[in-house]
Amino acid sequence: MDTKSTSRPLTFSLSSSADSSKFGPRTGTLVVSRQGEGKSVDIDTPALLTLEQDPPLPTLPLSATAPNANAHRLHRHLGLDPSAHLVSLVLRDPYDTRDIPTNGKDFVSALCLRGVRKPDIVLALADEPTPSHSVNQGQRTGISQKRLTKSVERGREWLAQLLAAVSRSHAAPAAPTAIPPTTHTPGIFVSLVGSNSPAARMAFARSLLEPLSELETATLGGLKVLDEGVSGYVVDLVALRRGLAPTPIPASASETSAATAQSILSTASSATPSSPPIPSPRIHEHEHALLHASLGPLSATKPRLVTGTNGPHDILRLVRDVGVDGVDAGWAVQAGGRGVALEFGFPAPVAIGSSTENGKQDIEKQLGHNLYDVKYALDLRPLSGEEGVCACIACKPVPVPGEKRIVHSEVDVPQRDGDGATRDGERGGKAPYTRAYIHHLLHTHEMSAHALLVAHNLATAGRFLEGVRRVLDSPSGGEIAVDEEDPRQRNFEEEIQRFEAAYAELDEEGVMSEAEVMWATVERARGKGRLGREREKAELKGASV
């Protein structure tokens, strides 16, 4: 287990892990030290990464990348507290599945510019190959061996160039300059490439452990192997699943059928930038084997981040079968953009996963509510279903100092309980926003609706991972023999089964698809404009006469 050291800018320590497997569920703490400030940011894992898909910096001029002595300028620009937040910008959106031009030897293609100077964590560029554009029976032909080899070589070379650039930034300049050498060392995470080939993924992982030559060691600041300069590992699930899509996954003769293979292909090929594909169980099993191939040769004490997850079910499988330490929250942000308020918890409430008198499981509950639906027009409950559960700005808004309630009628009078106390006074703040109010905001195209929903969904996802950590950190009940199953892991597995039985997956067949249709209907009505709608009504009225 790693020990926290003040000499390193980023450390990761495991507080619990499955004793019998390298890929079992585990908890830990990621510590990012603020060099020169004597402060650090502690993050408990499994943790949630908040993904901002429309950043406030659409372009970055060269002048903004010039060295500057002022620290945390980006934190202040975004309104974030440097003592509590880490900022990491990537060149590519991990949820964007659109085709892009091929990468070159000395450059990488990107659809937009998302760079930043001296972030807390840097994700090294990865040359993720995409299936060939040539078509065979209506399907892409896959990725050639030559392309896979080039991807592995470029990934290693780009990481070496990044580590060399960091080493040069610490060296004293040959001639006096106004800007001194930097003392900032960001944590560098490397993307594990190799697409759908276990051999290619393992080859890339082993290349990080190969001894460097004397010249390379001198260039890279004394590193013996590239992995010494790496703080953690990243896996892009969207790119991995795209690599799995063209070719059906091998299975036994009894399991293989043309219909099943076609279903897997159609599911994976229907992905859009806003909605990643929902893999079938067979794809899940195969992709976990690919992740094992990438992570197997590497250190188990460094944090593992995964981007492109599809929802809480996907996260639970990755925590259980791979032992990931961080996942992004793109699915929660997307749900808020579609008008869906998430409502779920881990462990699943007993009432949801209970059995009926006939011994059959209750119908799976959706993970959220489609607030575009007219049934929420008069629903005065908060987004979380009951007060006090969620502390987001929608369920527990903070009153503005000096703010007074405007009472237009008796309806606006604060509600009082049996003791005569108002609900506002009882909660120490404003009353929560109701589902009916958010429903109204959505149908009137108010941006605040999506802001409130995204804030609520991120808080829900955060509580979900708090529950995961609480279950994993629960007492194991004594020493465990080597050949026995870890009781903590067994308990976690039982809770996952209860969760899967209680909640339907956040896929395109449930609340998300329903919300997408209603969202499109409202957007089309908005595009017509009021005059256009009135003109249509007049034409219909004239035709009826």
Tell me about this structure.
- This protein folds into two domains: 10-63 and 72-131 and 146-169 and 183-250 and 262-328, Alpha-Beta Barrel (TIM Barrel), CATH 3.20.20.105; 340-408 and 417-527, no CATH class.
- β2 and β3 (39-45) form a beta hairpin.
- The chain is globular and about 80 Å long.
- A six-stranded parallel β-sheet has the order 4-11-10-9-8-5.
- The protein has helices at residues 73-78, 145-170, 198-207, 214-219, 237-244, 258-269, 281-295, 312-321, 330-337, 350-353, 423-427, 435-443, 447-472, 487-502, 511-544; strands spanning 10-17, 26-34, 39-45, 47-49, 121-123, 135-136, 139-140, 187-191, 232-236, 304-307, 326-328, 340-342, 368-370.
- The protein contains 15 helices and 13 strands.
- The protein is of the alpha/beta class.
- The chain is 36% helix and 10% strand.
- The model is unreliable at 1-6, 55-62, 113-117, 246-277, 353-362, 418-428 and 477-483 (pLDDT under 50).
Keywords:
545 residues, alpha/beta, TIM Barrel, 3-stranded antiparallel sheet, 13 strands, globular, disordered N terminus, Queuine_tRNA-ribosyltrfase
List the helices and strands and how they pair.
Layout: E1 10-17, E2 26-34, E3 39-45, E4 47-49, H1 73-78, E5 121-123, E6 135-136, E7 139-140, H2 145-170, E8 187-191, H3 198-207, H4 214-219, E9 232-236, H5 237-244, H6 258-269, H7 281-295, E10 304-307, H8 312-321, E11 326-328, H9 330-337, E12 340-342, H10 350-353, E13 368-370, H11 423-427, H12 435-443, H13 447-472, H14 487-502, H15 511-544
Parallel strand pairs: 4-11, 5-8, 8-9, 9-10, 10-11
Antiparallel strand pairs: 1-2, 2-3, 6-7, 12-13
Helix pairs in contact: 2-3, 3-7, 8-14, 9-13, 12-13
